[in-house]
Amino acid sequence: MKSEKTRLAIFDTFKTKKQQITGEAIRQRAIIHHLSNSTNSASKTRTAISQSIAEENKILWKNIYSGIFRDLDEVLIPLGIVAEEGRLPLKRGPKALQQNGMPFYHLTKKGMIVSLAIDKISDRKKILKAIVHQAADDNEKQAFEIMEKLVKIAPHFGFSVFERYVKAYCESNIDDLLPFTVENVSKSADNSAQLQMELLEGFSKLSKADRDQTIDFLKKID
Q1: Which of 33, 125, 211, 212 is the 20 to 30 Å CA partner of 53?
Q2: pLDDT confidence of residue 136
Q3: Considering its fold, how many domains does the chain have in total?
Q4: Is 110 within 8 Å of 76 (Cβ atoms)?
Q5: pLDDT of residue 174
Q6: How far apart are the C-alpha atoms of 116 and 105, rounded to whole Å?
Q7: Does 206 fall in a domain?
């Protein structure tokens, strides 16, 4: 089981403001978002991550660097969501960094699953497609392929499954995000999942005329 110190906090909200996520949640989401679309090594160092997030939020990057450092080293890396990808050689700066290089990071497969639960990330379909090729076995590959099909025809529904799954992990209702199998995903099901399944099953039994009429009705009340 995960200790409180290493619990992923991307869904954490303030006790008195349940609709507002905490600063820690915002930082962790921002780190995952940044790494999900970074394309070169230099953009994936702690400093580059801090500068990018600071620029987006119009604040000084040095003011958030310690928080970014802590989120990476104490939460995201220990949980296996982010991993060191390599080291950039340095000619200036502290001697230790010149000798060892500046670390840069990437999202692991687990981190990519977490990114699918963050609606701000625009390339989630592309990320999901990439995960299919990283499946550990046939069961996991099948689950990812099913989700890829669901996302194509019903993206909001498909990504809500990932959101529910990752949230269950954050709340320690499931021990790990891997392996991603139908059996493990079913452990994150809640009342909303049951309602969605009931709608899907019922909709599939309607005639084409009734389906068209139902869709028209739902569009009007949405």
Answers
A1: 125
A2: 87
A3: 1
A4: no
A5: 92
A6: 18
A7: no
The pLDDT score that the predictor gives to residue 89 is 85
Residue 115 lies in a domain: no
Residues with pLDDT less than 70, the chain:
1-5, 91-98, 191, 193-194, 222
For the record, the structure tokens of 207 come out as: 């005639």
Domain carrying residue 68? 1-107
Q: Specify the pLDDT at position 178.
A: 96
Alpha carbons 127 and 135: distance in angstroms, whole number: 13
Q: What is the CATH number of the domain that holds 93?
A: 1.10.10
Does residue 119 sit in helix, strand or coil?
coil
Pairing assessment for the beta strands 102-107 and 82-88 based on DSSP bridges: antiparallel
pTM summary value: 0.86
Q: Is 138 exposed, middle or buried (0-12, 13-18, 19+ CB in 10 A)?
A: exposed
Residues in the chain: 222
| Residues 32/53, Cβ–Cβ less than 8 Å | no
